[in-house]
Design brief:
single chain, alpha/beta, two-stranded antiparallel ribbon
Length: about 220
């Protein structure tokens, strides 16, 4: 496991963009607050950065990483159906979308999978995506199976494992985003989250629950 000197701490605001870019350009892992859970983030067009993220996360199995994006930039990383484009027009929103990966996407992100996760859970992340000129990939920060949902926990468990922790206080929802698979017809909710099927019907009238959620 890679260790660092004590992580730099910054309050969440757009004033930190230049410093955040400096860390990411050194292929370092940073820890960002989100309305869902705190997440480990790296530069998505650097193989070394993605490898550092995978080493830190210590995945049990190969799986694609999530990409932070928004409606006006999603076509850079994904091939989108009409329903996914419609949903992303409402970003930021605490959902995670499963979509088809762009064929030119870095294979270190996809790990051989044809689909990827994309998200943009809150306004802070939305604005960062617009201000940073390269793609951002992420995965949730956890201790064991428990997600990190507060700055205090982020600092306690990751201050010697990442180069920068951004203090956003406590996550608004404290749980992962609603997971929607847009590669299926109709779009299908795969895991419950902050946004319910009733919340989503005005945007996606045909959306359904996966069978395992109806038991």
């Amino acid at each position: 496991m890679t260790t660092h000197k004590t992580a730099q701490i910054l309050k969440a605001s757009l004033n930190i963009v230049s410093t955040l870019i400096q860390h990411l350009e050194r292929d370092e892992v940073v820890l960002l607050p989100m309305d869902t859970v705190y997440s480990l983030v790296v530069r998505g067009d650097r193989t070394a950065a993605i490898a550092a993220l995978r080493r830190l996360k210590q995945f049990d199995t190969d799986q694609p990483l999530a990409i932070l994006t928004r409606g006006d930039r999603a076509s850079e990383v994904a091939v989108l159906k009409k329903s996914a484009k419609q949903m992303m027009s409402y970003f930021p929103c605490p959902i995670t979308a499963i979509v088809k990966a762009h064929p030119q996407l870095n294979p270190e992100i996809t790990q051989g999978f044809s689909n990827i996760f994309v998200s943009c859970p809150d306004r802070f992340i939305y604005d960062l995506i617009g201000a940073i000129p390269f793609p951002l990939v992420c995965t949730s920060a956890k201790v064991g199976t428990e997600p990190i949902v507060s700055f205090e926990a982020a600092k306690r468990y990751f201050s010697d494992r990442v180069s920068l922790i951004v203090d956003g206080g406590r996550s608004r929802y404290g749980r992962r985003g609603t997971l929607i698979d847009f590669t299926l017809e109709p779009p299908t909710i795969m895991n419950f989250g902050p946004i319910s099927v009733d919340d989503l019907r005005p945007i996606l009238p045909d959306i359904i629950l996966a069978s395992h959620l109806m038991k």
